[in-house]
What does this fold into?
Amino acid sequence: SAVISQKPSRDICQRGTSLTIQCQVDSQVTMMFWYRQQPGQSLTLIATANQGSEATYESGFVIDKFPISRPNLTFSTLTVSNMSPEDSSIYLCSVSRNTEAFFGQGTRLTVV
Amino acid sequence: AQSVTQLDSQVPVFEEAPVELRCNYSSSVSVYLFWYVQYPNQGLQLLLKYLSGSTLVKGINGFEAEFNKSQTSFHLRKPSVHISDTAEYFCAVRTQGGSEKLVFGKGTKLTVNP
It folds into this structure.
């Protein structure tokens, strides 16, 4: 299994500001994934973060809006930049191990 | 590219009744299939997965699912539900041997009433 710690668990932010979400895994992993879950919706992959290289973004997501860092094999951050109310969502960090995906508890973001 | 369709957005049932949550997928390559559960204000927890072999897979909390390749379905079932099964259920797929990223369905909200 994998234990994933995500911080903060929730936050309320003013529009136009940025929030950085941290994800810590209990052991080394090659890839880390960031998902977004909009209110009442399913999970959508934002990007895949590999250590030592640029993150790979899915269609509809760009680096300027969601910059990602991956400084080592157990840690990653996702920043939500220049926030608007449409960014209000749950953001989840995930890793895969032996074909199974594990998820953090998520960061519930509300933009006002 | 893969896609997942969960045909029911909400399923209300009475306690101790059987339930089936439907999931269909589309993919041009072989896939792995998963069901996840999300309890209120919590992260996702794996219920069960199909990788290969027997098409009937059993998971935690008494859930099971059957993979049907010809119908591209992976429906989730439980013979007798409890109040504590009230949650959001997500079906997901990923390609075999390819990227580890998951494609999720829109979810089914299961509400178990007394």
About this structure: Chain A touches chain B through 20 residues (CB under 8 Å). The two ends of chain A are 37 Å apart (CA to CA). Chain A is about 0% helix and 55% strand. The CA atoms of residues 18 and 91 of chain A lie 14 Å apart.
